[in-house]
Write a structure and sequence with these properties.
Elements: H1 15-38, H2 44-65, H3 74-87, H4 90-98, H5 104-110, H6 114-126, H7 132-149, H8 151-156, H9 162-187, H10 193-215, H11 225-259, H12 261-277, H13 283-305
């Protein structure tokens, strides 16, 4: 697999990749509270479209300023379209919709299903059967998630419409896994990550608006101060900075480690939720966090032992 493929190159991560990975985890771990500010009455498809549309325009401006050619081949168009729908569009629509009924920490935890789903997507889409190390890492991650929440998750999902909200967020995890694998395939074409984000987010914006029109969803926009603050954070940090870094480092880390961001980010989201939404942290939570970190460490250590292909 070339340097842009879904399988990461063997050996330890370069320092800049490790720093970039940490920055993405920190940003996406805090965006869930930002997303929670977007569902204050504003229609989810409006919030997603405004976020992705603004981020797309910023990436287009960056591409023009750096003289990146805004051209795609037919195969690149197809992949960008799929990534736009799955990675920048409907997955966020589902996450925003589910956030109307769940705390941001619970939403982030459910999205950690992306890790095992990513392994399945790699197998079904690219024919790459998961290695034992990846399965162990995913298992440790999910066991950690179970310890982190346990009864808390059960209580959080009790009540009207909360089960439905969890199902919607789980569908977002499926879309993220597909989009992650397709994005890795797209990056293997050596297309600029700036151009990928510019077009992918434009597709995400359009598809969410189309979804709102086709489903007859209400078109409500309530730009309160908290909404505007969350929106600014989501556009500039959650989308432009985080997605820019993520696409840049994806060829180096591979899709499995990339999907593991959705496991590590909830660790931070959990503590943000505790601080801002009153979510209760119990001793078993810390044991779960340890398992999550062990799973990620195991994945990275196994990767460094893999000989170059």
């Amino acid at each position: 697999m070339g340097p842009g493929g879904g399988r990461a190159e063997s050996g330890p991560w370069p320092f800049w990749v490790s720093v970039g990975y940490l920055v993405v985890v920190l940003i996406w771990g805090t965006t869930w509270y930002g997303i929670h500010t977007q569902v204050n009455g504003t229609s989810p498809h409006i919030g997603v479209a405004l976020r992705m549309g603004a981020a797309s325009l910023i990436f287009v401006a960056i591409a023009l300023a750096t003289k990146q050619p805004l051209r795609l081949t037919v195969s690149q168009m197809r992949l960008v379209g799929i990534a736009g729908v799955c990675f920048f569009g409907l997955n966020y629509l589902a996450a925003y919709a589910g956030s109307q009924y769940l705390t941001s920490g619970v939403v982030a935890i459910i999205l950690s299903l992306t890790v095992p789903l990513n392994l399945l997507a790699e197998w079904l889409i690219r024919g790459q059967a998961p290695k034992a190390a990846m399965i162990v890492a995913a298992t440790l991650g999910m066991c950690g998630i179970s310890l982190v929440f346990g009864s808390e998750l059960e209580n959080a999902l009790s009540g009207d419409m909360r089960g439905w909200g969890a199902g919607v967020v789980a569908s977002s995890a499926i879309l993220v896994a597909i989009g992650n694998v397709v994005s890795a395939e797209l990056m293997s074409t050596r297309l600029s990550w700036i151009v990928v984000n510019a077009f992918g987010m434009a597709v995400g914006c359009c598809v969410t608006l189309a979804w709102g029109a086709l489903t007859g969803s209400p078109w409500v926009f309530q730009p309160t101060p908290s909404w505007l603050a969350g929106y600014t954070y989501l556009v500039f940090l959650g989308s432009v900075v985080a997605f820019g870094i993520y696409m840049k480092i994806l060829p180096a880390i591979g899709t499995t480690a990339g999907a593991y961001v959705t496991v590590l980010s909830p660790v931070l989201a959990l503590f943000v939720s505790a601080a801002l939404e009153g979510f209760s942290i119990r001793p078993m939570t810390y044991a779960g966090v340890v398992l999550l970190l062990l799973g990620h460490t195991f994945l990275i250590r196994q990767r460094s032992r893999t000989p170059p292909a």
